[in-house]
Design brief:
5 helices, mainly alpha
């Protein structure tokens, strides 16, 4: 129930799309809204107190959980997080379980091993272009690791690390070493 209102927020639709090309996204948006309206009909018919319910709004567009990602110097792997691997060049923690949404409506969660978190190496933020860093859901990761690193907290941490790396590059006109980035992050009280 939405506070201070008579509205309810119901996030129920989870679809698998074949691709993120325009026609598939459009089809996904259409299907999602159709399913939402079908659910309202079920509520009206089957759940007491919902006889007069209606949709106030739906999301403005479909949420895409995973799409293309740039190529990083290192692709973080399922095994890295399943073991809680601590890279020497680790610049951010990945602690969220690896989410698997390969079966629409049936997500599964796989824990991070070791101490309950792994470290994301700076190389997962580095590209072949010396002054370009990746952050958030665009860092180098396989599909399984991506299910952990794409969440907000980790995205903030990789964004901070990418910003530090970019600032160091601007100061010294060459890519920073991981220890330089880690030192600056620790000086900013980041968890590394």
């Amino acid at each position: 129930k939405v506070p201070n209102s008579n509205d309810w927020l119901w996030m129920i639709v989870d679809l698998g799309l074949d691709d993120v090309q325009e026609e598939f996204v459009t089809k996904g948006e259409w299907m999602g809204r159709k399913i939402a309206h079908d659910c309202v009909e079920v509520l009206r018919a089957e759940v007491g107190g919902f006889e007069n319910c209606h949709i106030v709004n739906t999301g403005p567009q479909i949420g895409i959980r995973e799409a293309w990602r740039p190529e990083a110097q290192y692709q973080l792997k399922r095994e890295d997080l399943a073991s809680g691997r601590k890279f020497d060049s680790g610049i951010a923690r990945a602690a969220w379980p690896m989410e698997d949404h390969s079966k629409p409506g049936k997500p599964s969660y796989h824990p991070i091993g070791g101490a309950g978190y792994g470290l994301i190496p700076l190389e997962s933020l580095c590209t072949k272009i010396s002054n370009l860093w990746l952050a958030g859901r665009t860092i180098g990761a396989d599909a399984a690791a991506y299910g952990s690193i794409r969440v907000m907290g980790t995205s903030f941490a990789t964004g901070q690390a990418a910003g530090v790396a970019a600032a160091l590059f601007a100061q010294q006109d060459e890519p920073p070493q991981s220890h330089q980035v880690i030192e600056d992050l620790k000086a900013q009280d980041a968890l590394v």
